[in-house]
Amino acid sequence: AKTEVCETGLWRYSRHPNYFFEWMFWCCWFLLAASPSWLSLLAPLLMYWLLVHVSGIPPLEDHMLRSRGEKFRALQRRVNAFFPGPRRQDIHPEGELK
């Protein structure tokens, strides 16, 4: 349904695992460069900045908040946005553990 949020598979550990693995792909170019230089780090750094701060996560999270509401807000409190990691306990704005 349009009001549900995904919390299974990779989405259990990151709200945007697709963006994380796209960024990992860009990091591989630095590692695969025949003669890696500091200049080759620009692509992964730029892609991280674009995905996390400009064109990836911000507009999608705005859309998800409008369409999924409190369910997505609760997911934001529990799951990292970009880097996969352990889930946090859901603490409601009133300070209660769920």
**Number of helical segments with 4 or more residues:** 4
Low-confidence stretches: none
The biggest beta sheet, please?
Answer: none
Radius of gyration: 16 Å
Keywords: Membrane, Transmembrane, Transmembrane helix
Pfam family, one: DUF1295
Transmembrane segments: 23-51
Organism: Aliirhizobium cellulosilyticum
3D structure, described in words:
This protein is mostly helical and 98 residues long. Helix 1 (17-32) runs antiparallel to helix 2. It contains four helices and no strands. The two termini are 23 Å apart. It has helices at 17-32, 42-54, 57-68, 70-78. The mean pLDDT is 89. The longest helix has 16 residues, at 17-32. The chain crosses the membrane at residues 23-51. Keywords: Membrane, Transmembrane, Transmembrane helix. Pfam families: DUF1295. This is Steroid 5-alpha reductase family enzyme.
Features of the shown structure:
4 helices, mainly alpha, 98 residues
List the helices and strands and how they pair.
Blueprint (H helix, E strand, L loop, with lengths): L16 H16 L9 H13 L2 H12 L1 H9 L20
